[in-house]
Design goal:
alpha+beta; 3-stranded antiparallel sheet; 18 helices; elongated; disordered C terminus
Length: 635
């Protein structure tokens, strides 16, 4: 059997050390969270009317291409399936073909944002009034604010129309409001759904200075953080630049899964490259839910991947400033967006740059936390290490060797990755197979004879019976609650008089159910006297497990009789003798064992001080097993 049917990975947890927190752990156990709620608000961007002077300022600030991107219908199931493959330990997607990620190069090509320049960082705010009054000319009412955040609806209602003959100061205020709305609804979209932090406003005070920031690097940092948060099994929403994520256009360019139709015509050869795709998917989408995309990604092949999607584009449409900065797309550096600092690790995805992929270096762990909890805090003084890495970005351009044999990398990768998200066999089918196998094992264990075994072997058989019935009890769901019975003095026997209640119906089992047993005694040696019965006549309600892990029979007459299970193996029938019995009776069950299915699986559980009784349905060993077959266990 394939190891990954039962263990989807990672086998080596040195890289994906937070697997237990990842959503894939919950999915594997059948705990589906469904498609993520995706927050993005590009649908109302076209309700802004910009004058030529405003357009000039927007372009000067570095957002001339981002504003061209139309609203695109988000494919929530596709985004959710990609998030299940995202690992915050490496800031990469873990596919079966290797690691891939959204790179700075992708940002430059798809969104036309600057990936080189000054880090996007400034002062945090806990109130909107002062900064809005200064840079927008007015402050919002209290109903439109929440701490240092302002509602997008207030920005649109107050600044979406600017007259042609307005004064320059008014034009600048309206343009700053538009830029705040633009970044708040796209690249810096938050999980609040309709608000944007005003801390970005001071960066738009001077439009020439705004154009010097690495907005693309900040957008990627924000997206990495959003993906990392959404990949946790405790999360149900995602924010960030989801137009980029769908990975909208990243996945459309790199993966042959869920692609929409291509836009045709001269206009759509233009930059940025996100304009290439229409918002509607091609073909039928009725069955393209989360499960559909998850299975597609679980079975992803190399032929489904476009490692170099930009290799054939017409570079004449790429702006010169974007071309000149593409080398930074291979920089192993720290991406910064205020308090969000995330590692850009192109050395793990060299095939996206046309290079062969060796085993990458270990990822240096870094602390992720919010540093701007107080208003008026300049984060540049609190992120010296992150800023130092960004300043050295030109010195950390990754290189690779072409033509390298990647077999060693793939062997290593398959050990450290999470190979599957969904089960190859549905959980319900696995449950049924496991239950059937356990039932077979229980039948064999109940009918096997311990005759001729020593005490250690007999104890092992008894323990197997206990373990397998415990597993069956846990699976059935009609478990019973056994009241705790205090231990008696050493040397005295424990009476099997426990109250057994079904959790499902609360009814008490009767102790006077008839027990059909045929006694056959042997004269002479009491060790050889046996009370034999067919397996169908066992009354499990009279069984208990003693300290020595031996089954005892609580007789109806108050006499505790040692119950032995006689196992016939390879034609030999032996029975472990009773010691220190109060009478000369030894109770045995003799049934031959024929064969154990190799595919049967034994479930191992820990012994507990107080154990629940095995339910009636879990103890059935054949069609002839009597219905009154509950039993209590004392350890």
């Amino acid at each position: 059997m394939d190891l990954y049917v039962t263990n989807p990975g990672p086998i080596d947890e040195s890289v994906l050390y937070d697997q237990d927190k990842h959503v894939s752990s919950a999915v594997w156990e059948g705990q589906e969270r469904g498609a993520l709620r995706c927050h993005e608000h590009t649908s109302k961007l076209d309700q802004w009317t910009l004058t030529p002077k405003q357009l000039e300022l927007v372009h000067k600030a570095g957002f001339g291409y981002l504003r061209l991107i139309p609203a695109i219908s988000l494919d929530n199931p596709l985004i959710s399936a990609l998030v299940e493959r995202w690992r915050k330990e490496t800031n990469t997607f873990h596919f079966n073909v290797g690691e891939m990620t959204v790179t700075l190069e992708d940002i430059a090509y798809l969104l036309g944002l600057a990936i080189d320049g000054e880090p996007v960082m400034g002062v945090t705010y806990t109130s909107c009034d002062a900064v809005c009054e200064k840079l927008l000319g007015k402050a919002p009412d209290s109903g439109y604010t929440s701490g240092g955040m302002v509602k997008l609806s207030w920005l649109k209602e107050s600044f979406s129309h600017c007259s042609e003959d307005a004064l320059m100061e008014e034009i600048e205020c309206h343009t700053r409001a538009y830029l705040l709305y633009l970044v708040g609804s796209t690249i810096f979209s938050t999980t609040t759904g309709n608000k944007v932090p005003v801390m970005y406003l001071p960066l738009f005070e001077n439009f020439d200075q705004a154009g010097k920031y690495a907005w693309g690097a900040a957008a990627l940092s924000f997206l990495y953080r959003a993906l990392g948060n959404a990949s946790l099994k405790s999360q149900s929403t995602i924010s960030g630049c989801l137009t980029l994520l769908q990975v909208l256009c990243w996945s459309y360019y790199h993966l042959d899964i869920g692609r929409p139709k291509l836009n045709q015509g001269p206009f759509h050869v233009c930059f940025p490259l996100v304009l290439k795709w229409k918002g509607k998917q091609s073909g039928s989408t009725a069955n393209r839910d989360l499960i559909f995309y998850r299975k597609a990604l679980d079975t992803l092949k190399s032929c489904d991947v476009e490692w170099l999607p930009y290799i054939n584009i017409d570079y004449r449409i790429i702006p010169e400033d974007i071309k000149n900065s593409l080398i930074i797309g291979r920089s192993k550096t720290m991406l910064i967006c205020f308090d969000k600092a995330e590692r850009h690790l192109p050395d793990r995805c060299l095939r996206q740059y046309g290079m062969s992929q060796p085993i990458p270096e270990d990822v240096q762990r870094w602390e992720r936390k919010s540093r701007g909890v107080d208003g008026g805090v300049d984060l540049s003084g609190k992120m010296e290490l992150e800023l130092s890495e960004w300043l050295d970005r030109q010195l950390n351009i990754v290189e690779g060797d072409e033509g390298m044999d990647e077999s060693e990398y793939m062997q290593w990768y398959m050990k450290i990755t999470r190979r599957f998200i969904g089960r190859l066999i549905p959980l319900s089918s696995e449950f049924q197979r496991m239950h059937a196998a356990l039932s077979d094992i229980a039948r064999i264990a109940d009918t096997v004879s311990t005759q001729g075994m020593d005490s250690h072997q007999t104890e092992s058989v008894t323990r197997i019976r206990y373990i397998v019935h415990e597993c069956l009890k846990d699976q059935v769901g009609t478990s019973m609650l056994v009241s705790s019975i205090p231990q008696v003095e050493h040397g005295k026997r424990i009476r099997g008089k426990e109250r057994v209640r079904r959790q499902s119906n609360g009814k008490r089992r009767r102790r006077d159910d008839p027990v059909q047993c045929q006694a056959a005694s042997t004269e002479g040696d009491p060790d050889q006297s046996q009370l034999r019965s067919e397996a169908a006549e066992i009354d499990y309600s009279q069984l208990c497990l003693t300290d020595g892990l031996q089954l005892c029979h609580a007789g109806s007459g108050g006499v505790d009789e040692q119950l032995h299970t006689t196992i016939e193996v390879d034609g030999t029938s032996l029975c472990h003798p009773a010691n220190d019995l109060e009478d000369d009776t030894e109770t045995c069950i003799t049934i031959a064992v024929t064969e154990v299915d190799d595919d049967s699986q034994v479930c191992h559980t820990a012994m507990k001080d107080e154990v629940q009784a095995v339910s009636e349905s879990s103890l059935e060993t054949s069609e002839d097993v009597v219905k009154h077959n509950s039993y209590s266990i004392v350890v």
